[in-house]
Model the fold of this input.
Amino acid sequence: SQKIEQNSEALNIQEGKTATLTCNYTNYSPAYLQWYRQDPGRGPVFLLLIRENEKEKRKERLKVTFDTTLKQSLFHITASQPADSATYLCALDILQNSNYQLIWGAGTKLIIKP
Amino acid sequence: DSGVTQTPKHLITATGQRVTLRCSPRSGDLSVYWYQQSLDQGLQFLIQYYNGEERAKGNILERFSAQQFPDLHSELNLSSLELGDSALYFCASSVDGFYEQYFGPGTRLTVT
Done:
């Protein structure tokens, strides 16, 4: 079955350092992969989308890589700040039961310490 | 503010009851998605509508149904509620496709 794995343990990073989050998937070849941020009790917020033919994408302090051979995406936040503390979700599109849908990782909780 | 609105914010009801959750997408978005998020299950895709038509179905129970109206707002109906249906229900919208979705604030459903 389709599976997405994200670091299940919370990630503690010192302010100013680079935080790196991992998203691994199995048994599928998605056309694109997305990263979202979610704060407690609130809806996810779209951050970045990377397509299967793109190796890397950047937006301000954020960088996403996508390795379709390893079936892995890495999400980096450089010069991290306490305000970056949140849960980060990855999501990818899959074809299931003759239609496309989005499946989501369980998320990694990121804690940036001052 | 994502531009997606959901009502009500909180809902407490008893087992066996039926509830309706409402969602208004961002202006200009034709696709609406419904998700369920519980502590032990993560975010689960339920169903997608595009311009009034059902486009994709995820892990939606037969007790649940949804529709999208001509003004593009959507409703999710949950019936014969069980304790396990307690969760946060999110609506999201996008112009089209599954990418770059904008989520509403969610409806927290508690079934007692």
Remarks:
- The interface with chain B takes residues 32, 34, 41-46, 49, 89, 91, 93, 97, 99-107 of chain A (CB under 8 Å).
- The mean pLDDT of chain A is 92.
